Amino acid sequence: NDVAEEGGRHWTDDEVRALLCVWADWRIRERLKCTLRNKSIFQEMARQMQRNFGVVRNWKQCRTKYKNLKYDYKTARSAHAAGGSTAGGPGKYMKFFDEVEAILLDRGLENGTTEMQKRLYDGEIAAGRIKTTAGHAAQTTASETEVVIEIDDGMHPVCNT
């Protein structure tokens, strides 16, 4: 995991958290499910990371990290499966395992970014240390939230890749 990422330095935990928060946004998740040529999605993610979390990474670095997180997640799951139940949870093989799983399985992320921020920063938001994505996440109306919950069973007829 400590391989130098494409385009330079290793990602800090805070940078990964920012990426996860942006990735958790349901609009981003839907677009990632549907498109193969997704440069523009990663450009958008990079913009949001900078705007909302002050993290500066280019789209290629975001894409590489996104792929690595998915790969690490799969690896952690199989390592855990191979190790049997005595080996502890799959989370011991990968930091942020639970967060990546929540995103990939659409689990408990009805409010996307906001929900992920709560998970990742719990106490810190309360302390007012984190700049919340005011306006951005808050725009999700009740009806949009309901729609997201309805399709939250992982069945996306639209475009399973």
Automatic annotation (TrEMBL):
Gene3D superfamilies referenced in this protein's UniProt entry, alphabetically: Homeodomain-like (1.10.10.60)
The Myb/SANT-like DNA-binding domain, residue ranges: 9-102
Pfam families with a match to the protein in the record: Myb_DNA-bind_4 (PF13837)
InterPro entries: Myb_DNA-bind_4 (IPR044822)
Name of the protein described by the UniProt record: Myb/SANT-like DNA-binding domain-containing protein
